[in-house]
Q: What sequence folds into this?
């Protein structure tokens, strides 16, 4: 009878994480109390503290959950996979509070005294992996370093999201990401690979 | 005798602005009190409130002062000017607390309840202007829209700065900006113009 109990614990943890994300997204880090999160998750305060030591631990978990929500429905690899991941990310930011709260917390963490650069490195690792596949497939332009591209793209996506958000145009994010690839592909991909990439924002849905 | 008095007022306002920037940069928006800013500026609390209604007004002034500190020493125009401005920005962020505080506040503004997207639009306007010059000079690749490039570059620079900052590698910012242009130039400039651009980070000093 150990299995169902563990499953229940995993589900409870997940419910709390989602409730916390919704609360952080709506009320900000400071505005969201552990009590409010408990109320939204429909669990006891004891359950919240059983899974997360304090609000900061919850915020870190929300920040780190970012890459998990990013699974493209379309099968792809190499450069197209990178593009698809960025399009899923742009779409999910408009519809998924867990991702939105994770990005918001990652960006504002300094003002809350949280220091956690894990999510940046996670993204970079994932992007770099697909860029290495792209290189093996002969998609990259000569001299292009997967590491340099991964680092730049993660920074550019972070800033593009923020710029869209602060200027009140988050809905434009998928189109902005398409623009990013239109500007970047000539510099990172060989002409044949660049021409083959599908930049339809619908791939992110 | 009106002139000297006005000059003094301008200087006092400037001193307060710089003191506030130093305080915001070191202590964060919440940590910096009006009293602390007064102490650092070497003025009375009355003088601070004469020039700035409250801390939020000071923060907005610091955010808006960003483009003013960005004057490249090297003469240039078109695409090279855009590159030079970004290199000055990358260098100044490491040495100029007024710029650093402005960027930090612009990025974290939501968590402080300030909403001010002026600095983003200011940057965009400046960049778009030079991109239009670049187009007139025949530097841009066919079909490249100054507006789209300006919007993307402002977002990418914001995110690159933040990514460098959160991963504790702010000193790498000039090199990251060089990487950005290496990746972007093939997509936005015609081959001849791209080859003529000088990406020496020393141009920003």
A:
């Amino acid at each position: 009878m150990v299995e169902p109990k563990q499953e229940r614990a995993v589900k409870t943890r997940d419910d709390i994480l989602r409730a916390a994300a919704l609360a952080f997204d709506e009320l900000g880090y400071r505005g969201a109390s552990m009590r409010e999160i408990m109320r939204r998750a429909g669990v006891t305060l004891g359950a919240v503290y059983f899974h997360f030591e304090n609000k900061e631990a919850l915020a870190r978990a929300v920040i780190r959950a970012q890459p998990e929500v990013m699974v493209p429905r379309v099968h792809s690899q190499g450069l197209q996979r990178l593009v698809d991941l960025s399009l899923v990310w742009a779409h999910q930011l408009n519809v998924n509070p867990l991702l939105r709260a994770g990005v918001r917390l990652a960006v504002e963490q300094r003002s809350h005294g949280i220091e956690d650069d894990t999510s940046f490195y996670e993204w970079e690792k994932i992007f770099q992996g697909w860029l290495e596949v792209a290189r093996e497939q002969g998609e990259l332009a000569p001299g292009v370093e997967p590491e340099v591209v991964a680092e730049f793209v993660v920074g550019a996506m972070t800033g593009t999201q923020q710029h869209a958000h602060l200027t009140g145009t988050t809905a434009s994010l998928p189109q902005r990401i398409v623009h990013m690839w239109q500007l970047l592909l000539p510099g990172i991909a060989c002409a044949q690979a660049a021409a083959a990439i599908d930049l339809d924002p619908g791939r992110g849905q």
Q: What stands out?
A: Residues 2-31 of chain A form the longest helix (30 residues).
